[in-house]
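Person: I keep going back and forth on a fold encoding question. Show me how you would write down a chain together with its backbone fold. Please set it down just below, with no commentary around it:
Helper:
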Amino acid sequence: QVQLKESGGGLVQAGGSLRLSCTASGGTFNTYAMGWFRQALGKEREFVATFTWSAGNAYYADSVKGRFTISRDHAKNTMYLQMNSLKPEDTALYFCAHTQYGHILRSQNGYENWGQGTQVTVSS
């Protein structure tokens, strides 16, 4: 069982930046991709970004393209989400997700393992 631990959330003013981290642990496992999803209050969980571990390809939701950057430290089994030019509509609980298999990377159904989430709040 892969365990995921997020960190780095917080309160920031609009236009500011935050960097989220997610570290995977739990023995020996394969990683096809790790991604970020978010869920705002009263809304469904939505795709933010994902990164394929070996190929190093990054994919983004249109709403964050150009503002957010996903990256990974392979040796540390850690993924990062650098969030710049934050907007109040970015306010949400951000979840880290992990998949060994690489199916449907823009859907939460494509991931087997999830973190508990870290709150990001952007004030106007």
